[in-house]
């Protein structure tokens, strides 16, 4: 989500919009009023601290997802191994025509096709600039 989204929802911003708005049944605000709206921006040190915290959280999120996926793969591997050891005896099973009984290979195929937890968007470490001043040069 764009940072401007949050800035426009601040109480101070909404209060400025309220003061600028005209009309009672359909309140409106002019482009020129939006342009002169003041949006608070933290100092550069605070901005850098926020970015550092976000980067740490994103790295921790990636670590947790990798850990979960490793456990998932181990569980799938163990389950496939246990199923592979079983012998399936369908001779005494009544004939089913609606496909509810699967062969061992069909079961293993479906288990192996189960998806891992996915990250919506991979963040490359180089994408996060830790110093806003470097962007302003």
UniProtKB/TrEMBL annotation:
Keywords, comma-separated and alphabetical: DNA-binding, Restriction system
Stored InterPro entries: Restrct_endonuc_typeI_TRD_sf
Top-rank taxon: Bacteria
Protein name: Type I restriction modification DNA specificity domain-containing protein
Organism: Nibrella viscosa
């Amino acid at each position: 989500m764009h940072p401007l989204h949050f800035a426009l929802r601040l109480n101070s911003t909404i209060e400025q919009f309220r003061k600028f708005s005209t009309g009672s049944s359909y309140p409106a605000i002019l482009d020129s009023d939006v342009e002169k709206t003041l949006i608070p921006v933290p100092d550069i040190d605070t901005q850098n601290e926020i970015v550092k915290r976000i980067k740490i959280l994103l790295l921790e999120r990636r670590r947790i997802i990798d850990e979960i996926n490793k456990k998932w793969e181990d569980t799938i591997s163990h389950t496939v191994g246990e199923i592979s050891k079983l012998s399936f005896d369908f001779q005494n099973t009544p004939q089913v025509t609606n496909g509810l009984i699967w062969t061992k290979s069909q079961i293993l195929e479906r288990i192996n096709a189960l998806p891992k937890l996915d990250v919506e968007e991979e963040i490359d470490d180089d994408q996060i600039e830790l110093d806003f001043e470097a962007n302003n040069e």
